[in-house]
Amino acid sequence: MNIMTFNTNEELNQIGAGIVASLIQTKPNAVLGLATGSSPIGIYQELIRLYEKGYVSFKNVHSYNLDEYVGLPEGHPETYRSFMNTQLFNHVDINKDNTRVPDGNAADLEAECKQYDAALAQASIDIQFLGIGHNGHIGFNEPDQQLHGGTHVVQLKDETRQANARFFDSIDQVPTQAVTMGVGSILKAKMILLIGRGAEKADIIHRALTGPITTEVPASLLQTHPNVVVLLDKEAAQKFND
To answer: Total structural domains in the chain?
Structure first.
């Protein structure tokens, strides 16, 4: 595991985008596993800048997103499809037919999960973006006595809904379920890029990366992966300096 700490978010974003851009330059049809939330936004913005300068093209890139809310109507600004369009896809030359986000409105969610897993099995993700939740979740794999390996429907814990309530008018509007890649699917990626920002994430990041491997801290399972790159701002990294 390679843990990198940065004094500024600008440096973090540049290094993160550079890792992705270098992959695409050497493998134009790279497969990216993408994440939402605030953690990857700065890297997406830097990738857009690199695209605009002509340093990288996404025209042959394929992508698979970690997760999607269940039940938000298509086009709702808080769907993760909308997030990806707004934060990245609308600003680069990626073919949206090559982008995949779980369908949270599928008539048969279990069938959607199986189809997503089948697609992931064929895809072989080169780099998987990850943030980390305050309770140690990755994707929407919440702490539990056991975890699912494949894509599945998850009941969101109250603390996760509360953390996401800032994006909605009220907590009542935050969905109670989501479709998420399982931990097994995440760990199949060739490289995992874990991004952590802010002092509020310092404790859980330190626990996940140095503490016992346990399903009660899903991110701790990243310790079993052979190629994890961790990008932390100085606030998120402070527990490593204690």
So the answer is: 1
Is residue 67 part of the annotated active site? The answer reads: yes
Residue 91, domain CATH: 3.40.50.1360
For the question of residue 137 being annotated catalytic, the response is: yes
Annotated catalytic residue within 137, 152, 164, 206: 137
Give the DSSP letter of residue 8: S
Of the residues 46, 62, 65, 67, only one is catalytic, namely 67
Domain that holds residue 139: 2-241
In tens digits, the chain (242 residues) has pLDDT values of 999 999 999 999 999 999 999 999 999 999 999 999 899 999 999 999 999 999 999 999 999 999 999 999 888 888 999 999 999 999 999 999 999 999 999 999 999 999 999 999 999 999 999 999 989 999 989 888 888 889 999 988 888 888 888 888 888 888 889 999 999 999 999 999 999 999 999 999 999 999 999 999 999 999 999 999 999 999 999 998 76
Please work out, in degrees rounded to the nearest 5, the angle formed at the alpha carbon of residue 148 by the alpha carbons of 147 and 152. Answer: 130
Q: Which of 68, 112, 142, 233 is catalytic?
A: 142
Among 9, 85, 98, 135, the one annotated catalytic: 135
* HEC sequence for 120-189: HHHHCCCEEEECCCCCCCECCECCCCCCCCCCEEEECCHHHHHHHHHHCCCHHHCCCEEEECCHHHHHCC
Tell if the pTM clears 0.85, that is, is over it.
yes
